[in-house]
Amino acid sequence: MTKKRKFRRADYEATEKTQITLGEALPEEHLARFIVSVVALLDLSEIYERYSSRGGMPYAPEVLLGLLLYGYATGTFSSRKLERATYESIPFRYIAGNMHPDHDTLNQFRKDNLQTLKQLFVQVLVLAYVLGYVKLGNISIDGSKIHADASKSKAVSYGRILSMEKRLQQEIEALFALAEKADSEPSDDFDIDNEIGRRRTKLTNLAQAKALDLSDAGFLFKQNYSILGTDDINQIANSDIIIITAGMPRKPGMKREELLQKNSQIIKGICKKIKTLSPKSIIIVVTNPLDAMTYTVIKETNFSAERVLGMGLTLDQSRLANLIAQTLGISVTDVQPCIIGSHGEGMLPLSRYTKIQGRSLDSCLKPDEIKELFQRTVKRGAEIVSVLGNGSAYFAPSAAISELVKTIIRDEKRNLPVSVYLNGEYGLRDLCIGLPCCLGKKGIEKIIKLELDTQEKEALIKSADSIRKQISLLDAQAYTEVKT
């Protein structure tokens, strides 16, 4: 009788419990290691300079460049496939530092830095050649057809390097053309309708879940309220107040003009629905760029100016009050801050109108200390983003919106700074900018007139000019759309 042969069988349960680092999983001479090492030697300052100081914490250019380098060198050109590889492939996971940049980020990074990336790719290939490699993945550096991951060359000459650069540039152009083609065509395993449906379902579920969670807090707050989470815009019908937060955040490398154009399109679509569903509502705008978007809402809805306001300086004043209180070691309720101008870098804090227990800020702090506080206020949002790591401020902006809604609903006739449409006030016309206003059940019931000195007036006009430029871009965009 024949003996049954024994086999070595895999213990998958034990395998799943095995702990191994990505570095341990890669051989010392692996191409992924070389890519990480060589990228660390490159000067990426040109790419870093394109990043705004605002928005969420982006992936380091070294990570994204490394993924593109390794992907293109090994025949992976689609951004979607690169994203998936950061989950499924150990070399890609190693280069990404076990992070998973999404395909939109990879695609945008390539587009925003196209010419710089092409130059960097050539530098990497030249550096590889200098270090003795004739092939990098599937890319032949010296024209040879050696079938190895990173094969060695015996001799290196400066003349040889110069002669190969033109050919390398042509090869890099071809690689980026393949990447552009791969990203412009639907992936074989990607169904756009299914993807849209998946994302929409996810957002709907998120809204419903938050609504349920907030509803459960009613008993603890001793408040009677009803919250509905939905993605159906028809649910805003007959609303008293509508808050617009929809829009894109500014991505790394994105110009302000691009953000302006993209968000204006989103706002215009929403305004059409508001006009039909809630023609008597008051609108609070939160979408950035705030002042330009508030202006857009007024023009698109044809609502009277008192029924449209932008939340921006309400938040900025709260931030300034907090920073002043921390500096002086007093209660935040003892501070009455005052800021005018655009929401953002063009904001204009007024020290002589800012009161500390009835005294002006000028009498409590030195000019240099006040200047530092104002600068910190301007950069506060970016500071939160850098500490948070992912996402941006949430609670304070929500509290600012809540304060505006409460003031209007209760008809409190209280002065709060909002982005308001001007028709000659402060010598300005046909734009929206932040100023203190009396708010009540009709929305903006009065624009408060502050007596500004010459320097303050000039600063306000400068802030207004920056908003006018954005409005001019919107007008040009609208003209192009009509012409098209």
Briefly say what this structure is.
This protein has 484 residues and is mostly helical. 52% of the residues lie in helices and 11% in strands.
The CATH class of the largest domain: Alpha Beta
- CATH superfamily membership of the largest domain, which one? Lactate dehydrogenase/glycoside hydrolase, family 4, C-terminal
Percent strand equals: 5-15%
Question: Measured on Cα atoms, how large is the radius of gyration?
Answer: 29 Å
Number of strands: 13
Number of helices: 19
Helix content: 40-55%
> Helices and strands: which structural class?
mainly alpha
Q: Identify the CATH architecture of the largest domain.
A: Alpha-Beta Complex
Q: How would the global form be characterised?
A: globular
Q: How many angstroms separate the termini?
A: 86 Å
Number of domain units? 2
CATH fold label of the largest domain:
L-2-Hydroxyisocaproate Dehydrogenase, Chain A, domain 2
Q: Strands of the largest sheet, in order across it?
A: 3-4-5
Outline the low-pLDDT stretches: 143-156
Q: How would you characterize the largest beta sheet?
A: 3 strands, parallel
Averaging pLDDT over every residue, what do you get?
A: 85
